Amino acid sequence: MTLTAELAITARDGHYHLILTLPQAVAREPGATELCFSIAHPMDLSSLEGARLLDAQGDWHRLELETPWTGQQAVTVSFSGKNELKKLTDRPYGVYLVQGEQRLPVRFEGEAERHCIKPVAVPPDTLSFIPRPSHLSAESPSIPCPTAMRFIDSTSGPAWNTGWYQRLISRLDASGPALADDGFPIEATLADDLAESFRLTVNSLGAELSYRDESGFYAGQAYLMQYLLQWILAGSQPGVTLAGAPAFSYRGVHLDVVRHFFLAGTVQGWLDILALLQFNHFHWHLTDDDGWRVPSEAYPELARIAAWRGHDLLVCPQMGSGSEPYGGTYAPDDIRDTVSIARDLGITVVPELDIPGHARALLIALPELVEPDDASVYTSVQHHHRNVINPALSKTSEVMKTLLDEWCSLFPGPLFHLGSDEVPDGVWQRSPAAQAWSEQNGQPADALHGAFMAEMEREVQARGKTVVGWEEIRTGQAVSIDTWVMSWQGIEAGQAAAEAGHPVIMTPAHHCYFDLAVTDQPLDPGYYWAGTVNLKKAWSFDPLAGLSDAAKAKIKGVQACLWTEIVETPRHAEYMWFPRLLATAEVAWGTGAERTFAQFERDARVTMNLLAHLGIAARDEAASW
Asked: Which helix (H) or strand (E) holds 500?
């Protein structure tokens, strides 16, 4: 049974007032004594009426009802808080009542609106490619799509990814050409003197990809797959010649799988789509306050405790996960398979182990990392009070080195992300271990952040990898300029890092965070702390603006980020991603400056229809892009 409750929210002068009414219903004994829920904007305790607060951790609140709800009469709880709850996705979620040992889910009327695009027929002669290649020419007449194809590998270099081709056509609502020895020939040739990164030609005699290097092969292969999908769906298309090279070597997509968990098979399916759009890095956010997604042989408590949250678990509910156990980890074979699939698509997986902050689940699972006498008082941005590991404890370094060993065996790529973001003021200030470190090193306790990241940088480098971190990794200027910096709160931190000599990935929220809403409409899902991000705003981003020539050379690329606090399902993720990922793809490829937004939007409509045929739950243009 799920109880439907009433919710009334009013807003004024930057504050909200919320009234939640549990209605009269079929009598239930014993009565419910507690009401629990997640809400991103905490209540003002002095305003709470009809209940008292028993516990608040992060966004989860546990209230004791003044009058137990039995269904015989309505029970009302009200409170106020900062910020105006402007959107349906701001309201309490993951709501439930506690009745003895039972948990009763509670819902409210109304849902966020997600209008997904539906596929329509693909007419012949409507070829479109995103990102737009530097050179594109079509040839008449149109060529009928063959019934069979033959992929002929280059004598050197990567082999054609026929598994990718077969996975893509299996998603279509139309049958594609089979693979056969006498099929339409598709050849690849290494040409290291090629002026462009790749050149792809398709005519009635066959298709030929010339490529200068491995990255050129993967770029040309992705454009070929775009062509083949459109060819299959239309029945015939003109021949084409495509050529070009990307502006940036790092073209990334970030996915948070902690706040909400997505199965390995789902992630692998998304990699097929990301590669199609020329993305070549997948930033996998695998640890946070609310969960842990990589198992550990040395510390099995991480999979048993840190990976799961729920009402009766050590890690309490968060992000609307409700009373039931929620979470999971990726089996080592799942991780290896995902990394392998990505590699065969030309995508490098960048794992993120977020430290020293965002570590609440880790600290709960491994209490030996908590200093009993640490009386420091702090509150994180996500309203946690104990979510930062203490670098002054010797056990911290021991655990981190062990985890780095385990993770580096699972993730062979050259980049390793260490987080370093959102460490709140006040940490370590009343820690005996931190004070001892401070006296020994002649530095304030705050300096532990930079010192710890410098230590971890050395450890990662000793394992043959390069560190990446959010912009706060430069705290104290302790890490070397070899560490890559992701600029996320704006462009300023990235510009400063690039001018200082760091390699930089630009991912400013107001252009690249796709958990932000597209519009300010109340029923349109998403956050808006950095404003809204529509398709034009995402496409108009210039990663090199305002930089000296020397600093421009340090900009490695661009990344779109999807945090999943209110992104609960794969369809929700796809709705937030598309079409905005098309804009980031073009920004990262670097051809957007060569045309107008209207020209890009015309191509986006064609590609969005292609994605709909591939089963992607993308946002319909009628909902506003």
From this structure: helix 492-500
Please name which of 530, 528, 622, 619 lies closest in space to residue 582, comparing C-alpha atoms: 619
Is residue 591 scored above 90 in pLDDT?
no
Q: In what order do the strands lie in the sheet with 184-190?
A: 135-144, 236-244, 198-203, 206-211, 184-190, 148-152, 178-179
SS3 276: helix
Cα distances (angstroms) measured from residue 181 to each of 178, 185, 186, 208, 221: 10, 9, 11, 16, 20
Predicted confidence band of residue 174 (pLDDT cuts 50, 70, 90): confident
pLDDT, position 594: 84
Strand partners, 105: 96
Distances (CA, A) of 335 to 284, 410, 573: 11, 7, 20
Residue whose pair of structure tokens reads 């991103």 in the numeric block: 40
CB of 420 closer than 8 Å to CB of 473: yes
User: Which amino acid is present at 465?
Assistant: K
Do 202 and 133 contact (CB within 8 A), yes or no?
no
Contacts of 394 (CB under 8 A, 6+ apart): none
Find out whether 76 and 20 touch, Cβ atoms under 8 Å: yes
Q: What is the Cα–Cα distance from 330 to 346, expressed in whole angstroms?
A: 22
- Tell me how far the alpha carbon of residue 38 is from its chain's centroid: 21
pLDDT at position 157 is: 86
Distance in angstroms (rounded) separating the CA atoms of residues 61 and 41: 11
Residue range 420-455, pLDDT digits in tens: 999 999 999 999 999 999 999 999 999 999 999 999
Q: How many CA atoms lie within 13 A of 455 on its CB side?
A: 16
Helix residue ranges, H only, 21-65? none
pLDDT at position 29: 76
What whole-number distance in Å separates Cα of residue 223 and Cα of residue 200? 8
CA distance 392 to 437: 6
Tokens of 598: 């209207």
Single out the residue of 543, 540, 544, 517 nearest to residue 530, CA to CA. 517
Q: How far apart are CA 1 and CA 480, in angstroms?
A: 57
DSSP conformation letters of 538-559: HHT--TTTT--HHHHTTEEEEE
Q: In the structure encoding, which two tokens stand for residue 217, read together?
A: 């092969």
Q: Which residue has the tokens 């004791």?
A: 64
Q: Is the Cβ–Cβ distance between 427 and 378 less than 8 Å?
A: yes
- Contact (Cβ atoms closer than 8 angstroms) between residue 502 and residue 512: no
Distance CA 125, CA 123 (A): 7
pLDDT of amino acid 175? 87
Going by pLDDT thresholds of 50, 70 and 90, the confidence category of residue 505 is very high
Q: Which amino acid is at 252?
A: G
